[in-house]
């Protein structure tokens, strides 16, 4: 179906980030100029929302994702359709109620995530996004200077049970067997220079284990300090899902949080992630994969962060 006759409109929903894009029927057949408009809105507003995309299935969702870049599989969790569709289901234990950017435990973590609402609970289950570029920009200059020089180690092997006190033993077992089946450690700069906008963004979130070179207590204090600026309510936008909604976010300039307040009601979303590149800090140093030696191939397609090995070796300066 052509969208050529419908004007695309972009309406802000938050002061710091978020906009609703109307007049688009998402799919793999969108004209290049519409894709360019969506991409520009995405880079400017960090997260963009589309209502009424009920026509999308796994295949069309992925086909649309390909217009933004190369879809990538999750490094450890099997897809929902044997391809690139990642399940975010309440019955899967997948309640992402921690602030994070997706898959930051690998170097070349995804640039974009495209999330589609399939089953939405009668209440609750909203998602929050925070702008990590404005979080940096609004920091007092001495804190910007401090952050500029820091690096942090991210891992998928975090203390899941401690973060989710009510977690069921089977969910914990599943986390260990699936999500953390391969344990990744990646060191990123705390301040990433955005490869498309040039903005400086804070690269933190719940996959961070520690600030490199600091003791546990100092590391925790600094992480809480910077993460607190990201999570300030004024720096966030909140989305109340309807079935058929699609949210696309710039995973290099945002964190998000799935609010776990819909009790036992079913909530089912599907995510397609688009390949990113290896972050670079303000000093020009790239992120480095510390473990394992390379990102293993998933059962299907290419893994998020797969470009790691070559990119890292390419990016490693002689000095
Ligand atoms: Fe996420």
Task: Describe the model.
It catalyses: a primary linear alkyl sulfate ester + 2-oxoglutarate + O2 = an aldehyde + sulfate + succinate + CO2 + H(+); 2-ethylhexyl sulfate + 2-oxoglutarate + O2 = 2-ethylhexanal + sulfate + succinate + CO2 + H(+). This protein is an alpha+beta fold and 319 residues long. The chain has a single domain (9-301), classed as Double-stranded beta-helix, CATH 3.60.130.10. The protein has helices at 32-45, 58-66, 132-137, 141-148, 160-163, 169-179, 216-231, 308-315; strands at 9-12, 19-22, 47-50, 71-72, 86-89, 112-119, 127-131, 151-155, 185-189, 191-193, 200-202, 208-211, 236-239, 246-250, 254-258, 268-274, 288-291. The chain is globular. Bound molecules: fe (ii) ion (FE2). The site of fe (ii) ion (FE2) has 4 residues, from loops.
Short description:
The protein has about 325 residues and is α+β, with helices and mostly antiparallel strands. It contains eight helices and 17 strands. The chain has helices at about 30-45, 60-65, 130-135, 140-150, 160-165, 170-180, 215-230, 310-315, and strands at about 10, 20, 45-50, 70, 85-90, 110-120, 125-130, 150-155, 185-190, 190-195, 200, 210, 235-240, 245-250, 255-260, 270-275, 290.
Measured by DSSP, the beta-strand proportion falls in: 15-25%
Task: Determine the fraction of residues in helical runs and give it as a percent range.
Answer: 10-25%
Q: Could you give the count of β-strands?
A: 17
Number of helices: 8
Instruction: Give me the secondary-structure category.
Output: alpha+beta
Mean pLDDT figure = 90
The CATH architecture comes to 4-Layer Sandwich
Bound molecules: fe (ii) ion
Rounded to the nearest angstrom, the distance between the terminal CA atoms is: 54 Å
Ranges with pLDDT <50 over ≥5 residues? 308-319
Whole-number tally of structural domains: 1
Rg measurement, Å? 19 Å
Order of helices and strands: EEHEHEEEEHHEHHEEEEHEEEEEH
Largest sheet: 8 strands, mixed
CATH topology: Double-stranded beta-helix
CATH superfamily: Clavaminate synthase-like
What is the overall shape?
globular
CATH class: Alpha Beta
């Amino acid at each position: 179906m052509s969208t050529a006759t419908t004007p695309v409109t972009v309406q802000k929903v938050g002061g710091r980030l978020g906009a609703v894009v109307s007049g688009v029927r998402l799919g793999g057949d969108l004209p290049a100029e519409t894709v360019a408009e969506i991409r520009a809105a995405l880079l400017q507003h960090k997260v963009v929302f589309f209502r009424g995309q009920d026509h999308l299935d796994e295949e069309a969702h992925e086909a649309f994702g390909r217009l933004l870049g190369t879809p990538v599989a999750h490094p450890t969790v099997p897809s929902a359709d044997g391809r690139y569709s990642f399940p975010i289901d309440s019955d899967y234990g997948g309640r992402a109620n921690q602030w994070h950017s997706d898959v930051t435990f690998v170097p070349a973590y995804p640039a974009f995530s495209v999330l589609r609402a399939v089953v939405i609970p009668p209440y609750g289950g909203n998602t929050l996004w925070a702008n990590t570029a404005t979080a940096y920009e609004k920091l007092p200059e001495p804190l910007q200077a401090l952050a500029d020089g820091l690096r942090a180690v991210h891992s998928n092997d975090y203390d899941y049970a401690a973060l989710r006190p009510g977690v069921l033993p089977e969910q914990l077992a599943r986390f260990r067997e699936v999500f953390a089946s391969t344990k990744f450690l990646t060191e990123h700069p705390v301040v990433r220079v955005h490869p498309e906008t040039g903005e400086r963004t804070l690269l933190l979130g719940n996959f961070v284990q520690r600030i490199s070179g600091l003791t546990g207590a100092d590391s925790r204090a600094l992480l809480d300090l910077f993460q607190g600026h990201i999570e300030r309510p004024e720096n966030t936008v909140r989305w109340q899902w309807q079935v058929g909604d699609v949210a696309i976010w710039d995973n290099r300039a945002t964190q998000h949080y799935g609010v776990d307040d819909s009790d036992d009601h079913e909530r089912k979303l599907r995510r397609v992630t688009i390949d990113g590149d290896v972050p670079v800090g303000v000093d020009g140093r790239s992120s480095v994969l510390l473990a394992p030696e390379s990102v293993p191939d998933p059962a299907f397609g290419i893994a998020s962060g797969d470009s790691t090995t070559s990119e890292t070796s390419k990016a490693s300066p002689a000095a």
